Amino acid sequence: MNSAQPHKAILALLETYFEGLYRADSAMLTTVFHPDARYVSALPEDYRVLSFPEYRQVLDQRVSPARKGESRSERIISIEIAEPNLAFARVEMTMLGRDYTDFLTLIFDQGRWAIMAKIFHYEIANRGD
């Protein structure tokens, strides 16, 4: 595997991640999360640690930003790759009236990159009102 391949694969994974969140599509997110992944809210007033199956249940109950007609805003802040099977991505996304910062730990397992841990923080979005 040359150094460009993991980066391209992770960029594709992140695009699917953003799209899956925007659509609240748990089936789509299953393609980017590891089955043993953890979902962690780092806010003391909203602290949660969920398994991926528990997180899927949350998503399945959510009315998606896409269905609400919300605009989509996201950006990749950084990707760090520690060859051959460990990477980290810091991303930001605005949806559901919140500005999210996600720290994603990824592993290369069974021939694919997958999110093993999603640890995030959010603030109420500043909409310039």
TrEMBL record:
<dbReference type="Pfam" id="PF12893">
    <property type="entry name" value="Lumazine_bd_2"/>
</dbReference>
<dbReference type="InterPro" id="IPR039437">
    <property type="entry name" value="FrzH/put_lumazine-bd"/>
</dbReference>
<dbReference type="InterPro" id="IPR032710">
    <property type="entry name" value="NTF2-like_dom_sf"/>
</dbReference>
<protein>
    <recommendedName>
        <fullName>Lumazine-binding protein</fullName>
    </recommendedName>
</protein>
